[in-house]
Amino acid sequence: MTEKLPYELIESRDGFELRHYPRHVVAEVNIRGDFMQAGSAAFGPLVSYISGRNEGSQKIAMTAPVLQTSTDASTHVVSFVMPSDMKPGDVPNPTGGVVNTRVVEPTNMAAIRFGGGWNEERFTGFAEKLVSSVKAAGLETVGEVQFARFDPPWKPGFLKHNEVLVEVNL
Question: pLDDT, tens digit, for every residue of 35-91?
Fold first, then answer.
């Protein structure tokens, strides 16, 4: 079974959950281009990295979710979360200059889960719903919305698990 990024449920609110995520490490790729193509464009370099294209040729288990953040309409960051037992000092340095690793400090996030297939329109709709619900609850968002894909593209849409997340100040 694929390891998932752990979190602690703080509270279920009307329309979203508040979660606390522990410190973790991500491997990420910056992609310029279309939202829907960003995941595919980043997947190759990220899979190469976890398959051993790194200093030390270390193989790293695949985890879920694959995260995507859009910093503008044509710039996206796609991230793989490193396994929870990998501390920052254990994560091998990438080779090739495309993949970067980064420590994500503990954070509080608001999240909405949804099933089915995904596309930019669906993610954007759920993102707008999440941000609106968070603000209506009197909370402040921090940074950009993250889109989380938990399943491979070939899994039937009706079985897929997706989420939209945004950092919040509590």
Answer: 989 998 999 999 999 999 999 999 999 999 999 999 888 999 999 999 999 999 999
Determine contact, residues 38/78, Cβ cutoff 8 Å: yes
Residue 111 contacts residue 20 (beta carbons within 8 Å): no
Q: Is the pTM of this model over 0.90?
A: yes
Alpha-carbon torsion (3, 9, 12, 13), positive or negative: negative
| Residue 46 CB partners (closer than 8 Å, separation 6+) | 27, 28, 29, 66, 78, 79, 80, 99
Please tell me the class of the 1-22+106-170 domain: alpha beta
Q: Which CATH architecture has domain 26-103?
A: Alpha-Beta Barrel (3.20)
Question: Residue 74, CB half-sphere, CA atoms under 13 Å: how many?
Answer: 2
Q: How far is CA 109 from CA 7, 32, 132, 147, 167, in A?
A: 10, 26, 14, 12, 4
Instruction: Say which residues have a Cβ less than 8 Å from residue 156's Cβ, sequence separation at least 6.
Output: none
